[in-house]
Automatic annotation (TrEMBL):
Keywords attached to this entry: Heme, Iron, Metal-binding
Protein name: Cytochrome c
Organism (species): Mucilaginibacter terrenus
Pfam families noted in UniProt: Cytochrome_CBB3
GO MF, one annotated term: metal ion binding
InterPro entries: Cyt_c-like_dom (IPR009056), Cyt_c-like_dom_sf (IPR036909)
Annotated TM spans: none
Xref: PROSITE patterns: CYTC, PROKAR_LIPOPROTEIN
Domain Cytochrome c: from-to ranges: 101-192
Record-linked PANTHER family: LIPOPROTEIN-RELATED, QUINOL:CYTOCHROME C OXIDOREDUCTASE MEMBRANE PROTEIN
Amino acid sequence: MLAMNKIKILGTTAFVIAASIVITSCKDRRSTGWQYAPNMYEHIAYEYDQANPNFKDGKTAQVPPAGTIPIGFKRFDYPNNNAGYQLASTEVTNPLAANAQNLADGKALFTTFCSPCHGVNGQGDGTVVQHGYPAPPSYSKGQSSRGGAMKDLTDGKIYHTITYGVNAMGSYASQVAPEERWKIVMYVHQLQQQ
Ligand code: HEC
């Protein structure tokens, strides 16, 4: 029985080796071999970094026409300077409904993105600060470096800060989408009262 099995195993191994030599010994080394669903190898669409004769500049990746914005994109036309910060403060208000769900989402987002520095209660005592990072002022008791008490920061000022950052705080625009920023703003207002 054992001898028979050994012969079978040897036979199978020899067959597999022979078969792989036949399959891999194609002359054209760049050939992909047998193709299943060939469109996956030879695209009909242009790759974005590929030359393209259909456009004047010969490139596939085109710059969007001036004045256009992506679908779903929310504009925030307040520049990253003090004038933009002050103007946002007077003109911009939270478009979201003040309800328990938005507040709970805001709390979760704040805990993820902001609490490492600002602390879970917004007192400027997050874990990063405990390791030597410059402490942000408390939302309820501190003073803003741009003037006024932190507890009086408006919707627009907080949104502007999340979008652009300020001094030691970087921009969170690429991590937190506009709607998420507004949920966070809602929760920061709650922390201003602590
Ligand atoms: C890397 C640490 C860090 C993180 C993370 C961080 N901040 Fe800050 N934040 C700071 C520091 C430091 C300041 C004080 C900067 C200054 O005024 O010089 C600050 C200031 C602020 C201010 C006051 C702005 C003003 O006008 O005075 C607000 C509001 C604020 N942060 C909100 C947030 C929110 C919301 C998040 C999360 C999306 C966040 N921060 C994440 C470090 C951080």
